[in-house]
Structure formats: C-alpha cells, structure tokens
C-alpha cells in the first residue's frame, strides 16, 4: 500500500499551521494586553498616590495656617501618668505624631519601601468586622485598616495626633473638643469629616449593636456634637480616667459604608472592614472565615506611606507546623512558646537568617483559668461548685504553677497574683500568689462539703455528686495541651476530676459569648493602665460584657467605680491595689502567668527595636510599622 501526501493533506497541514500562528499571535497579544493593563493599573495607583500626597500637602499647609491663627492650647492626659491632666501648649505643627518612628527609619541608609510582611494568626479567626469581634487577631487587622484620633507613642506612652491634629479639654475634664485633619479620605476615596466621628460614637452606643465591650468604657459620655466639618465636641457626665483614651482609641467608621447596614446585619457580617488606614482589604465586604487575610497598601493614604506593599496573615495552626514554615522562610516572624524559642535559637541553620528577641510586652497581659459560678440550662440558672470561694481557692492551690512555669514555659515569665502586671503601678506588691498546697486545698474542699465519701479517690458533695468539670481551651497550641494535661494531673491528686474540652477558636468565642462552659483557660491582653470593669464588675454579666463567670462582689464594684472616677494618679493606684487584693482573695479566676514575649524575625526585616511598650511596633498599639526590607533583600513583588 502506497502512502501519498495529497492536496487535501497539504491544505489540512496549512490550516493547522495557520491556526497555530493565530493562537500564538493571540497569546502574544493577550500577554501584551495583560502587561499594558498591569502598567495602567500601576500608573493609576501611582497617580492616586501622587494626588493624595499633593492633597495632603495642601491640607497640611491649610492646617498650619489655621494653627498660626488660633494658637490653641491642648490639654491632655498628663504625660507619663495616664489619666491625670495637664496643660500643654503645642507648636503650630506638633513635634511628635504617629509617623515619628517611620520618618526616622526613612533616614537610615538602607531604607526602602516595598516587599510583603508574611505573618500568622496561629489559629482560625471568625470575624474582621469591628466592635462585634472579641478576637485579638481581628484587632491586629483593624488597626492597620482603620485609625483613631490619636495614638500612644511607643516610648513616651504619650498620646500623639493621628486623625485629630489637636484637641482641647476643659478644666473639669468633662468637655473635649477635637480638630480633625484636612485632606483625610477613606480607602474608597470618600472624605472623612466630623459626620463620620459622630456616626462612629452613635453606632457604638446603639444598644442594638453588639458592642457591649466598648460601650462599657463610654458610660460617662453624654453627647457627641459636630461643630463643623472638622470639629467634634464630646461631653461627659463624670470624670473617668479613660474618657480621653477611649475616645481617641476608637477607630473611625465611614458613615457612607457602615451606615447602609442595619445593626442586625452588621452584627452578623464577618468581613466589613473599611477605614482611613495605611492598608485596606481588596474588598471590604466579602471576607469570610477560612480566607487568608491580605492587606494591600492604601494608595489614598493621607499620612506618611507605609513600608510594606502587603501584610499577609496566614492561619497556620500547630507549633511544629509553624516552626517548619518559619524554617522554610515562608513566614517572616514567629511568636514562640519557650520550647520553640529555645529550639529555634539554638539551631544554626535558623539563626543564619533570624534574629531572636525576648522582652516584656506592656500589652501581654496574663493567662488564667476562669471558674463559671452559674450555669444556665433550659432557661434555669444553677450554681456550680465554683460559686463557693473556698472551692475556687482550693483549685488554685492544687495547681503547681511554679512547676508549670519552670518545666513548660522554661522560666520565661512569673506566676500571676492578679490582673495587673508586676511592672504596673496598679500591682499590689503586698499580695503574694497562692502557694501550691494540696493539703490546704483539701481542707478548703472539705469545709465546702467536698470529701472522698466512698474511698474512690474522688471528692463528692454531701449529695454524693463528684467534683467533676470540663476545662475548655483553644485547639492548635501544643504548649496549652501540655499545660492542660499538667492541670488534669494536679486536680486528680486533689480528688477532682477534670475533663479536657478542646475546641476550635470560632467555636470557643461562641461558647464564651453564650457562657457555655464550666471552666475555661485563656489569656487577656493588657494596656499601660488597664480597667478591670468589663471583666469583673457585676454589671458586665449580662449582654455582651466579659464577666462570663457570673462573679459578683459589691465591694469590688464600688472600688472599681471609685477608681475609674479618681483624677489623681497616686490615689487611683491605691484603689487599684485594693481591687488586686479582693480579686486575689476571691479567685474568680486562677491567675496563672505573666509571660514574656518571645519572637523570631527573619533578618531581612530591619529596624526592629525595643520600646517602652515592648517593641517599636506592636499591633495592639495601633501605630505605624517602622520596619522595612532593604531593596536588595526584597523577595515579593506585586
């Protein structure tokens, strides 16, 4: 049989060749168009940024001219002693602001903008919507997307201007007037005005909004009034040492964006996040749990441009997995438990590209076990064994906290005796942490009616009900698992049965909101001068308050209220120390540890320095990143 290449075959061959040429040309054209679109997008971004810089410069000149005309006197919290007040006569242009450390970084020889910061939550988060989330990780994100009127300087702890350029406070501390910056816009381009500030405060104070936690700090606020587009007046019924801090720390919400939702819709939405900040979500409405959180540089940002093009938050759970990812340089920093910290900093391969730091973090707070005193089932409230103070004291004395600190946390911290850190002026030095004393604990349990009645090693009530409970805790942390097992063993030796109850973080948040737990171990972050009202005042049992243990002590309530209204710092500190003593005696929580912050950073991240708050950048402080990556070491491109 003879093979022949005919005219039909030639025609088919030419047709296929022509199609291939057309496809190749189409691909080339597509690549060219994609490149052009990318260039246009980049040019638009640069143009937007240029216009923003021009607008900001013009606004700054106008603000300066106004300052020269008015020469206002600013009265703010006394510098270095939070909560008292002193008069400060500022220059027309403040000598310090939210960008001081960033501007100092810009002067360094290797400074460059660009690259990404790859961070990690180490757990799954449920919401990015402000106010309604109780998740500390949500706050990390919020403070990069949204801004307040002022922010604490990381070293002096003084409040310095952010969205407000100055403020005045009346002599009695009950009237505060803020002058806003010109030229500030939200990330969608809409201008920020006094209307947005008033809307924010009205929204927070709306009882239909699940913002009880924030509202608890605004009980003395009586009115918020727009004087003009750039001036807002706040009036208070009584002095409260956090009146000023609460107002300036609140992130300002765009009325045109959040106002289109009802309170019920707002409460349920998981990803509503828009503000004036240096970063933005690509779509401020559509984020949902399970998605990686990616923050993009805001080209319309009114202030000094941020250093990183993106901040990326992963949700990598498990210490070992996190270590592997950091070791592969897929994460730029890792927040370590002590065993991780020791292992990594003694690994030459890791330290070849890393810097290790250990420090006291003013926002670090304390860890605890909270004892729920009242369970609600089928609408009926039933006291738990933990309603008896003697039982709570016994539970604390059954725990060998010194040994946990030594063996699991390798001594990086101290045993806590209350809600205030040892370096805080609120701390009562006369209070000593409850000792590890199983014998004394058993005596207290016996006084409360719990003894081993049948010789099985478990203590029972006079009705024969064994002292047994579930300890709820978040999944994904190997050190917490070790601590929980250690606790279980300690309680067993005292005749108490503890059942570990490990749950994912979103489920745990729901359990907390519904007070659906018997005992829970977690941690609270802190502030330079913290207010225990929302956690331990009896008024915070209902609604969305944080007194989830149903703890009531009327003497403590009065002391907290008195301290909140005390102007003189020294007098207020004496009251806080009495609060410390009562909480130590009552043990609504077993206060576990004040732990050091342990971090490893990829050494391509430069300008990480110590500061009074901990480091020169802490997410919970809400300031600007002064960290950067030199151009030669940048690895991520947009």
Structural class: alpha+beta
- Write the CATH homologous superfamily of the largest domain: Periplasmic binding protein-like II
Q: Based on the structure given, which CATH architecture of the largest domain is correct?
A: 3-Layer(aba) Sandwich
Weakly predicted, low-confidence segments: 71-94
Strand order, sheet with most strands: 20-19-21-15-22
Q: What is the helix fraction of residues, given as a range?
A: 25-40%
For the record, what CATH class of the largest domain applies?
A: Alpha Beta
Determine Rg (CA atoms, Å): 28 Å
Number of strands: 26
- End-to-end distance: 61 Å
Mean pLDDT: 88
Number of H/I helices: 19
Name the shape in a single word.
Answer: globular
Task: Tell me what you see in this structure.
The protein has 19 helices and 26 strands. The chain has 638 residues and is of the alpha+beta class. The chain folds into 3 domains: 62-85 and 97-327 and 604-633, 3-Layer(aba) Sandwich (D-Maltodextrin-Binding Protein, domain 2), CATH 3.40.190.10; 333-361, no CATH class; 366-595, Dipeptide-binding Protein, Domain 3 (Dipeptide-binding Protein, domain 3, Roll). The chain has a 5-stranded mixed beta sheet with strand order 20-19-21-15-22. Strands 3-12-11-10 form a 4-stranded mixed beta sheet, covered by helices on one side. Helix 12 (389-398) packs antiparallel against helix 14 (438-447). The model is unreliable at 71-94 (pLDDT under 50).
């Amino acid at each position: 049989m003879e093979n022949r290449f005919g005219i039909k075959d030639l025609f088919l061959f030419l047709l296929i060749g022509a199609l291939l040429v057309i496809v190749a040309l189409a691909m080339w054209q597509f690549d060219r168009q994609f490149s052009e679109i990318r260039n246009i997008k980049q040019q638009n971004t640069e143009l937007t940024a240029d216009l923003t810089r021009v607008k900001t410069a013009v606004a700054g000149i106008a603000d300066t001219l106004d300052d020269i005309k008015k020469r206002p006197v600013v009265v703010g919290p006394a510098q270095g002693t939070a909560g008292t007040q002193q008069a400060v006569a500022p220059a027309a242009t403040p000598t310090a602001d939210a960008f001081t450390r960033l501007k100092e970084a810009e002067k360094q020889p290797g400074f460059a903008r660009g690259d990404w910061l790859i961070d990690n939550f180490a757990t799954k988060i449920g919401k990015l919507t402000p106010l309604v989330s109780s998740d500390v990780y949500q706050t990390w994100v919020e403070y990069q997307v949204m801004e307040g009127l002022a922010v604490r300087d990381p070293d002096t702890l003084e409040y310095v201007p952010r969205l407000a350029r100055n403020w005045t406070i009346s002599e009695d501390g009950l009237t505060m007037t803020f002058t806003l910056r010109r030229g500030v816009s939200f990330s969608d381009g809409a201008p920020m005005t006094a209307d947005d500030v008033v809307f924010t405060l009205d929204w927070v104070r709306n009882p239909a909004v699940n913002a009880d936690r924030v509202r608890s700090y605004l009980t003395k606020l009586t009115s918020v009034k727009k004087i003009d587009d750039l001036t807002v007046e706040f009036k208070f019924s009584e002095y409260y040492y956090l009146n000023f801090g609460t107002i300036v720390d609140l992130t300002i919400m765009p009325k045109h964006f959040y106002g289109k939702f009802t309170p019920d819709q707002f409460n349920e939405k998981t990803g509503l996040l828009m503000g004036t900040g240096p970063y933005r979500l690509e779509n401020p409405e559509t984020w949902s749990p399970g998605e990686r959180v990616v923050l993009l540089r805001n080209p319309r940002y009114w202030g000094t441009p941020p250093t990183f093009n993106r901040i990326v938050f992963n949700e990598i759970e498990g210490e070992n997995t996190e270590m592997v990812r950091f070791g592969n340089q897929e994460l730029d920093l890792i927040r370590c438990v002590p065993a991780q910290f020791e292992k990594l900093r003694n690994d030459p391969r890791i330290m070849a590209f890393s810097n290790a730091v250990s420090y006291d973090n003013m926002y670090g707070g304390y860890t605890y076990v909270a004892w729920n005193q009242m369970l609600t089932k089928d609408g009926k409230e039933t006291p738990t064994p933990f309603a008896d103070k003697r039982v709570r004291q016994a539970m604390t004395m059954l725990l060998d906290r010194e040994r946990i600190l030594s063996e699991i946390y390798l001594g990086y911290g101290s045993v806590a005796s209350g809600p205030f850190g040892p370096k805080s002026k609120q701390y009562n030095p006369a209070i000593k942490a409850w000792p590890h004393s199983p014998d004394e604990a058993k005596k207290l349990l016996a006084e409360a009616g719990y003894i081993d009645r049948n010789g099985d090693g478990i203590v029972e009530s006079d009705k024969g009900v064994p002292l047994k409970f579930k300890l709820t805790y978040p999944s994904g942390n190997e050190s917490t698992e070790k601590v929980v097992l250690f606790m279980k063993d300690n309680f067993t030796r005292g005749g108490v049965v503890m059942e570990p109850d490990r749950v994912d973080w979103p489920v745990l948040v729901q359990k907390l909101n519904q007070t659906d737990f018997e005992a829970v171990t977690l941690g609270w972050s802190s502030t330079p001068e913290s207010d225990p009202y929302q956690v331990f005042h009896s008024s915070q049992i209902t609604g969305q308050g944080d007194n989830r243990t149903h703890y009531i002590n009327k003497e403590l309530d009065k002391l907290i209220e008195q301290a909140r209204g005390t102007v003189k710092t020294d007098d207020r500190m004496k009251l806080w120390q009495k609060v410390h003593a009562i909480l130590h005696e009552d043990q609504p929580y077993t206060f576990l540890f004040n732990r050091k912050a342990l971090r490893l950073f990829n050494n391509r991240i430069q300008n990480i320095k110590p500061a009074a708050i901990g480091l020169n950048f802490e997410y919970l402080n809400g300031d600007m990143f002064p960290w950067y990556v030199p151009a030669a070491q940048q690895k991520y491109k947009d």
